[in-house]
# Entry
Amino acid sequence: MRRSWILAICWLVACSSSDEVVLETTSIPATTSTTTEVSVVARTCKATPTADLTSCDFSNASLMKANFYDSDLSDANLSGANLAGAQLSFSRLIGANLAGARLAGAFLKLADLTNADLTGADLSGATLIGANLTGAKFAGANLTGARLTNLVKDDALASEEGAILEFINFTDTDFTRAVLDEANLAYTILTDVNLSGASLVFADLTGASLTNANLDDANLSWANLTETKLLNANLSNANLWNASLSSVDAERANFTGASLYQVILDGAILANTQLMNAGFQRASLANAILVNADLTGASLRDADLTGANLSGAILKNANLAGANLTRADLSVADLTGADLTGAVLKRANLDGVVGYKP
# Structure
């Protein structure tokens, strides 16, 4: 039987708004035996500037800087394709296979990526402003320097709590220095992600899972992290000014040097956390659990720690001036060198406290 070499060539012609964009497929068979077999990788696709390319096969194709503006690529196979710098704004990529695709510097503004597979894709420096990522898969993807602001709401998936991007799995995704300001990432899975230096100002991370996430130097000011899981997360030197972390579970997390000015941590679980030199000025930590937390050198000036559990906590050289510690449990805590000027300790449990004499 004759073996054939197949060459699938897709020509993307950039036209004016009145011209037609034509994608052609060419098959070139070899002639090494009496039988000829022809295999076509991509079907012929013709379209106007709003191209209909649904279900087309562009796997492993070279499409650098290609113009797919406002095209329909739903269910298309773009796995392994080189789409670096491609224009995909306003395009529909619903259910598209982009696994392993190279989308570095690509433009996907307001693109619809519902249920798209971007596993292992390179989206470094890509623009996804206003994109709909509902149900998309990003496991192992690289989004270093990507812009993902104002992600789109899908009312059909919105829960009573306001989650608008449910079911998205960003496990092990690289968001280094990504811009996610005002992004709605409520209830998303962000386990093991790298958000180092990322900007998440006013982002909604309600109920999200950030276990083992790296958020060092991230900007989370005014962000909503209510009921978020931050187990073992690294938030060293992060900016959390005015952020809401009520009922967050951050056991064993690292907040060393983090800025938590006026943050809300009511009912938060911060047991065994590293909070050295962190700034909690005017923060609210009512009923927070800080058992065995290390707050060495931390500033809790004017903070509300009403009913907080600080049993076994290390508060060496901490600034607790003006703090409200009413009914707080400070049993066996180390307050050596701590400043408690003007602090309120009404009905606080001071059994076994080290470095402080009532």
